[in-house]
Design a protein that fits this description.
By secondary structure, the protein is α/β, with parallel strands linked by helices. It has two domains: about 170 residues, Rossmann fold (3-Layer(aba) Sandwich), CATH 3.40.50; about 50 residues, no CATH class. Helix content is about 45%, strand content about 15%. A six-stranded mixed sheet has the order 3-2-4-1-5-6. Helix 1 crosses helix 2, helix 4 runs antiparallel to helix 7 and helix 6 packs across helix 7. The longest helix is centred in the middle third of the chain and has 21 residues. The radius of gyration is 17 Å and the shape is globular. The mean pLDDT is about 95.
Length: about 230
């Protein structure tokens, strides 16, 4: 048996002009995860990442914290869906930006209500967000990475760094969940969270989901983020 560790990227730059880069907090989360693993003697036989900057930066932080020197395998099928395109597919008008701190929570909730609705319609095939693959193609990009791990790394520890969408899709695939249940998993996954699969050449089995063992100390209580 082998173990596959799936890590969501550290906190990105939600609300900024360029979301696809880690915030200072996201980098600290990633480095701390690497330190946590180094303290426990964790080693990986292979690393696979999506090709987005936040994936690469998260792996760089983990490698820095742990002293790892691996060269990762880049897997485009592990890239996140385009949340802005998903929302535009059902709400073509620009979303309002908060004018003050009081408006921010409600606008944040509105954003994720639209995202949930858009994801539901994309998964059902009723909308086709611009520039995005069909949902079946997105799922194949994720499951092909799982197939690669089973075929090539039996008995190994493998690290996969990706985003909430692909990781929840992987969990949904392994557990046979409905698209609606997969969306709920997606919208609750935390930054730098660790999900574990045990695997053999035939199948993956879920061991844990959305855990933050590296942030359990009380001095890290403000490091838990979702965006």
């Amino acid at each position: 048996m082998g173990t596959l560790y799936l890590v969501r990227h550290g906190q990105a730059s939600f609300g900024a002009d360029d979301y696809d880069q880690l915030s200072d907090m996201g980098r600290r989360q990633s480095v701390q995860l690497g330190r946590y693993w180094a303290e426990r003697g964790m080693a990986f036989d292979a690393i696979i990442t999506g090709t987005l900057r936040r994936h690469e930066q998260t792996w760089a932080g983990i490698a820095e914290g742990a002293g790892f020197g691996h060269k990762p395998l880049a897997w485009p099928g592990l890239n996140e869906y385009d949340s802005e395109a998903v929302i535009r597919a059902i709400h073509p008008h620009p979303l309002q930006k908060p004018r003050n701190a009081q408006e921010a929570p409600e606008l944040y909730r509105h954003h994720f209500r639209l995202l949930r609705d858009g994801l539901t319609q994309w998964m059902a095939g009723t909308v086709s967000p611009q520039g995005m693959p069909a949902y079946t193609e997105f799922v194949h990009g994720v499951t092909s990475a799982l197939d690669h791990v089973r075929a090539n790394h039996h008995g190994h520890n493998v690290l996969l760094v990706s985003s909430g969408g692909p990781i929840s899709t992987a969990v949904g695939h392994v557990l046979g969940l409905s698209p609606e249940a997969t969306i709920e998993l997606n919208l609750r996954i935390r930054n730098s969270a660790v999900t574990e699969f045990q695997f053999n050449p035939k199948r993956h089995t879920l061991l844990s989901y959305n855990t933050l063992p590296h942030l359990e100390r009380v001095d890290f209580k403000d490091w838990v983020t979702y965006a």
